[in-house]
Amino acid sequence: MLSFDNSFVRELPADPDATNRRRQVHNACYSYVAPTPVTAPRLIAYSREVADLCDLEVDDVGMHELAEVFAGNKAWPGMDAYAACYGGHQFGAWAGQLGDGRAIGLGEVVNRRGERWELQLKGAGPTPYSRTADGRAVLRSSIREFLCSEAMHHLGVPTTRALSLVTTGEQVVRDMFYDGNARSEPGAVVCRVSPSFIRFGNFEIFAARDELDVLKTLADYTIRVHFPELGDPCPDVYLRWLAEISRRTAIMIAHWMRVGFVHGVMNTDNMSVLGLTIDYGPYGWLDNYDAGWTPNTTDASGRRYRFGHQPNIAMWNLVRFANAIYPLIGETEPIESALKAYPQTFERAYREMMANKLGLGSFRHDEDDALIADLFAVLQATETDMTIFYRRLANIEPAEIAAQTDDQRIAPLLDAYYSPAELDEEVKKRIGGWLCSYAARLMTDDLAMTERRAKMNRANPKYVLRNYLAQLAIDKAETGEPTMVDELLEVMRRPYDEQPEHERYAEKRPDWARTRPGCSALSCSS
Ligand code: AMP
Ligand code: MG
């Protein structure tokens, strides 16, 4: 049996009302609320790695029991179900109370190694924070969250995890593009797992309401339980904490930029204070490299959360968080200097990351900044698959480039191009020109060829959770055939390995997926 130690509900103030009636909740970090049972729960996928983290012996427990518990129909001893109260800035504006509208925490497992892993059901029914919505989640978005959580982990990106994916046997009505075309879709529940799900918005709500006692209680709790290395909470420690959150956020964003991940809804209620990727909604992966791309149709007009803007948005969000904890510190200047940990870490991490992607022994400031700026221009000169391009770049023979024609130079990369017809002389000249500069740069580097390749292949995944692949898995699952979820999970367990038997999952987006909903465009409706 799992061993629970539910510190969040034990140490923080609770809402006295334990019903799921929608309401504003004051002076409390959470409300007790039970999941709403479903008619026919069925476990369709689980992550054995996450089961291991929780000391969960899947075979002993059995599939039926797992489905019951992780759909919310049954609780194990030691579980305490609750929904957290938080607020947030959505698309740049303060949105007031949001909270766990369809997420229900079950408790915190402490495993044999002493690690704390909180379990949380997403889609388990209404809570006081559900506002006008139903507290449920559809299968398509649940598959996307389940697979992407695990894919990101295996790619080495800090993220919350996913233990299980259960279908409910019930239908949920959604208007996918908010255009009056509502339809019934199968419902599902994902069990997410993370040391904690505390977000920037958990602090913002108490600052906005001037509930400063609760703000302090929550900050002290978070530091004691999740940042004990920083010492006992006091103004200096709050500052170190802010710097640490800034640092972790910078590392997370550098990873997103490395693998071509676009979160899609970087509202402050979707930012983890642990620096983990959280809340997989209308996210997407770059197929062709385009810094201006966002998959989220809800953000189509301003494209606030486009790929290339993510580093700036993370900083904007950190400033919102810093404002929220300002009352605990009371001085502006040291807060500003703690926040500098973000740009400082990001610049360092980003350069190191680019050096790894390009196979450079170390980053040389002026020279390599220019090389990288030129690279991004070349990647956008014609539709170029980001993942394939970087992966194939490791096959370039730098000693031979100078003597080659542009066609010969580009040959190892050809698979990365979406529109061979666009590869006219002009474009080939630009790509060839960049490859010459790159090769010249490599020739002055001290890394041996085999080392360089190995370094690049550790930074440039062969496999990412391409939008169209997730959509194919969804299409099949919606017809009652969920096996592709497991197949994709299996491939994504080793994203840096060649896996010749899975070559088809490394192919670039097929033409039919260019404009298909779910493959190129998603909304927040989930
Ligand atoms: P998101 O944009 O997914 O981060 O969600 C923003 C807010 O809306 C959060 O408070 C969610 O809990 C809430 N929310 C989203 N979908 C639902 C739903 N189907 N039922 C209840 N609350 C929801
Ligand atoms: Mg959210």
Question: How would you characterize the overall build of this protein?
Answer:
It is a single chain. The protein is α+β, with helices and mostly antiparallel strands and 526 residues long. The chain folds into four domains: 7-200, no CATH class; 235-353, no CATH class; 360-446; 467-513, no CATH class. The protein is built from 19 helices and 13 strands. The strands form four sheets. Strands 3, 7, 8, 9, 10 and 11 form a six-stranded antiparallel beta sheet that branches. Strands 1-2-4 form a three-stranded mixed beta sheet, with no helix packed on it. A hairpin with an 8-residue loop joins strand 10 and strand 11. The protein is globular, with a radius of gyration of 24 Å.
The hetero molecules present are: adenosine monophosphate, magnesium ion
Low-pLDDT parts are: none
Number of strands: 13
Radius of gyration based on Cα positions: 24 Å
Oligomeric state, counting identical vs distinct chains: single chain
Terminal CA distance reads 33 Å
Question: Helical amount among residues, as a percent range?
Answer: 40-55%
Q: Keywords, please?
A:
single chain; 526 residues; alpha+beta; six-stranded antiparallel beta sheet; three-stranded mixed beta sheet; 19 helices; 13 strands; binds adenosine monophosphate; binds magnesium ion
In short:
The protein is α+β, with helices and mostly antiparallel strands and 526 residues long. The chain has 4 domains: 7-200, no CATH class; 235-353, no CATH class; 360-446; 467-513, no CATH class.
